[in-house]
Structure formats: structure tokens, C-alpha cells
Amino acid sequence: MDLSLRQLEEAVSLRRQIDSLERRFAGLVGGGRVTSGAGAKTGGGRRRRRRTMSAATRAKIAAAARARWARVRGGRKKLEAAAKNRAVAAACLPRHARNLAI
Length: 102
What we know:
Blueprint: H1 5-29, H2 55-85, H3 95-98
């Protein structure tokens, strides 16, 4: 295969464009490994910044979680007290009855 200098330059230019497009594509779809004949480094993709939450927002979420757990625990305590009054062990109650709030 006999190539002229102009054809070789065009082939090198095309190869560079292909490599550049492969790097851009890898950056868009999550950075899968891109292999090329020259063993070029993959890159082009930006590292995503970690999303942060304000202290006030974290406090609101924590307070809501504590309130939910308090409702769950409060319902169980009432149910267990009622079960003891009826002389029935709470462990003998069906699972759905243990989770109900009275």
C-alpha cells in the first residue's frame, strides 16, 4: 500500500479527530475506557462535584426522622401496654398489629 505524503497527513488528522471525539463521548456517557492504537489517556470528562446540604436542611431532615421514629415507637408502646393488660405477649401478636398505632 503506497500512500502519498498528503494522504498520510490526512490520515493522521482524521485519527486525531477520532481520538478527540472518543474522549468527548467517553466524558458524556460516564467515562468508559477508550482504547486507541497509541494508548492515549482517557479524559475529557469532568469530575462531578458532590452535592452539599446546608446545616439547617440537615437539621430539618433529622428532626423529621426523629418525629417519624417517635410515632412508630409510641404506637408500639401503646400496643404493648394494651397487650400486657390483656395478658397477651406482644411477640404473639401478628406483625401487622405490632406496627399499628392506637
